[in-house]
Design a protein that fits this description.
alpha+beta, two-stranded antiparallel ribbon, 2 helices, elongated
Length: 42
């Protein structure tokens, strides 16, 4: 559910991974995280 909005009555939440070296090397590459960031509406 990364970068997919979770709608609540008060706000929208867009869950993302933290771009730390540990995450980018193990769980989700930085290139994919950048794609996730671009999905968030401005």
């Amino acid at each position: 559910n990364v970068a997919k909005a979770i709608i609540t009555p008060d706000f929208k939440l867009f869950p993302l991974y933290h771009p730390s070296p540990r995450v980018t090397n193990w769980k989700r590459p930085l290139a994919q995280q950048k794609k996730d960031f671009r999905k968030i509406p401005v």
